[in-house]
Amino acid sequence: MNLQAGPLCTRASLAAELRALGLRPGETLLVHSSLSSLGWVCGGAATVVAALLDALGDAGTLAVPTHSGDNSDPAQWSNPPVPEAWWAEIRASMPPFDARTTPTRGMGAVPEAVRTWPGALRSGHPQTSFAAVGPYAATITDGHAPDCGLGERSPLARLEEAGARILLLGAGFGSCTAFHLAEYRIPGRLVDNSFALMTPQGRRWTTVRDTAVSSDDFGELGAAFEKDRPVVRGTVGGAQARLFDLAEAVAYAETWLPGNRPPAATA
Length: 267
What we know:
By secondary structure, the protein is an alpha/beta fold. It has helices spanning about 10-20, 45-55, 85-95, 110-115, 135-140, 155-160, 180-185, 220-230, 245-260, and strands at about 10, 30-35, 40, 60-65, 120, 130-135, 165-170, 190-200, 200-210, 230-235, 240-245. It is globular and about 50 Å long.
């Protein structure tokens, strides 16, 4: 950590700035975050989580993506790839997803802190789980189907039903997972997803058919969305923050994506 990087952020200062941005006690909030963008945070990721919970209050619910995409078919790995001679052994040996212990991958320090927070619940998808803390956590995380990573049987749809808002805290629209829910509502390509999971019969390497998703154009989509729809913008610590309605973002994406992406054939 660069000790000269600022500003200095504390639990109290972050909570105050989150309230000033517009966070409301009792609301349900999906957060995408970059810890390093905030500045020098006294206490690190745990301080950010505590400040978010302070702003939401006891009646509020905090949700984050806790994805673990490394539980996947090694034949599709590219960053880095592994030798083809290893693939069969990796498929046979990959630890099955465990909501209690499987770490996040590529999500950042704040989601990992939420995952291990006292009372946190986590959905059961081996690749695209979400964790939540608060009164609505069970409703958000229950029933996450293995063949519906980010669609109607995922926490994203439950967050939409709950009237959740999205906070991008130092993160761009490229991180906005809610846009994926719109992809499920537009006829598109299907793909095979493979992972290790626990079943009543024990560990299994399983392949399911699911909707193909891509965030490659989410930056462009987000720029159009905030130009046309209400997005609260401000600063929290040293980070640019955006706050907006999840359902409104999904509805906008359902209209924007078909007109701005080439048609995809259903496999």
